[in-house]
Amino acid sequence: MASLAVLLLVVCAVLASGAAGVRVGLTRIHSDPGVTASQFVRDALRRDMHREHARSGRVLAAASADGTVSARTRKDLPNGGEYLMTLAVGTPPVAYPAIADTGSDLIWTQCAPCGDRCFKQPAPLYNPSSSTTFAVLPCNSSLSMCAALAGASPPPGCACMYNQTYGTGWTAGVQGSETFTFGSSPADQARVPGVAFGCSNASSDDWNGSAGLVGLGRGALSLVSQLGAGRFSYCLTPFQDANSTSTLLLGPSAALDGTAGVRTTPFVAGPSRSPMSTYYYLNLTGISLGATALSIPPNVFSLNADGTGGLIIDSGTTITSLVDAAYQRVRAAVKSLVTLPTTDGSDATGLDLCFALPSETSAPPAMPAMTLHFDGADMVLAADSYMISGSGLWCLAMRSQPDGAMSTLGNYQQQNMHILYDVRKETLSFAPAKCSTL
Ligand SMILES: *[C@@H]1O[C@H](CO)[C@@H](O)[C@H](O)[C@H]1NC(C)=O
Ligand SMILES: *[C@@H]1O[C@H](CO)[C@@H](O)[C@H](O)[C@H]1NC(C)=O
Ligand SMILES: *[C@@H]1O[C@H](CO)[C@@H](O)[C@H](O)[C@H]1NC(C)=O
Ligand SMILES: *[C@@H]1O[C@H](CO)[C@@H](O)[C@H](O)[C@H]1NC(C)=O
Ligand SMILES: *[C@@H]1O[C@H](CO)[C@@H](O)[C@H](O)[C@H]1NC(C)=O
Ligand SMILES: *[C@@H]1O[C@H](CO)[C@@H](O)[C@H](O)[C@H]1NC(C)=O
After folding, report:
1. What is the pTM of this model?
2. For residues 392 and 268, what is the distance between their CA atoms, to the nearest angstrom?
3. How far is the CA of 292 from the centre of ligand 4 (A)?
4. 99-100-104-108 Cα dihedral, nearest 10 degrees
5. CB 122 within 8 A of CB 238
6. Is pLDDT above 80 for 160?
7. Which residue in 159, 109, 117 sits closest to 135, CA to CA?
8. Lower CB count within 10 Å: N or C terminus of the chain?
9. 254 vs 231: CA distance, rounded Å
């Protein structure tokens, strides 16, 4: 986590002017080369698992006695492989690193004063009273989380207090409006006024390494929606590459035109209820290992009318989870191809299929690619994108979910792919890429 301070930002042009869009560097929270693969996976899994618990007890949007709005999403402890972007809030701008998360909508950062309810962040704390562009977001704003509670004519000066719960983590404060700045050097800065955000003065301490979060989901509060960006893309460098910066592009500069091997699949329309309305659902129709199509029962990834099931793509989850009916076929197929002895790696990694390498420095044996067959688009995962090695262990970097639950395509499986979310066309496109050189 020591390398968090080094974040590269380049902004090509101002979004509002209709020009090329915004380019932001992303670094991984665990880009400390001292962190072993097994520690990385264990931390990531701990976080992903907490998120599962949260799902079963999900509260959508409810008001407590004091009028605070609560909203839950699936995000959780950011200690194992999330990607950070740097942006700046206020006038003068205060820069801070935030988790880039396609699985939630709210943009938030910690605001002074917050006494002992704030977590320690790796950047100076933003103080709204020192900014000339801060305003409390009026409750009659279409972006107020309290709009439904406040009624048709909320009292003047009404402020919306929120408590956003993410699995075991949460953050609470008042909704504000601010000017946000993207880009590090004055020459390339894009300043966007009037962005609705969460000004948090109390949070759990689960956000180590960041100073908040940037939601990139489908909802009105996300950065993508508020900028009217229409589309965004990212290209995530592999975990093993601790030194490179990943890229996030917002707006017109997010494009795969002229790139070889582009595949496109439609998003599946999700329920209009929160939090499902935030997620990017995909239609996964099958999985192959090498040339062999696995005999996965049909419809195990279908999204049900009651909002259960389905498969989403999420930049804020690390390890892919598949419903058990599919996971067991993948596990068996991988196991059948490997002659190394299996070993219990669950203490070290939390993963359930691990092989013992002959020594800590042994290279893992060759494995065929795994193909995820999306509707109209095959996504080919090289062995490094579905197996993870470290400390003499070599494990399947996927996990099982109860049948009927939601499956998630995590960021470990998205590495070295340029992935474009076109929210206007309702499609996801992707192409193999060397993300460190994008
Ligand atoms: C956060 O701000 C709200 C609104 O100003 C206030 O009611 C609350 O006491 C503050 N909480 C903390 C922990 O400072
Ligand atoms: C919100 O209320 C204020 C006065 O309380 C009014 O001036 C403003 O036009 C209202 N905005 C909307 C979007 O209704
Ligand atoms: C926010 O919600 C969480 C989970 O329900 C709770 O533990 C926490 O105390 C709440 N925080 C505030 C400031 O209300
Ligand atoms: C947060 O990070 C610090 C130092 O990097 C570490 O000592 C602490 O245990 C971490 N806390 C959590 C909750 O992970
Ligand atoms: C990453 O950067 C560190 C410090 O600059 C350097 O020592 C190390 O060799 C680099 N690793 C790679 C794989 O380039
Ligand atoms: C998923 O893709 C299959 C194959 O193209 C298609 O038959 C099916 O209708 C799609 N389902 C949804 C919900 O789009």
Report:
1. 0.86
2. 40
3. 43
4. 50
5. no
6. yes
7. 159
8. N
9. 7
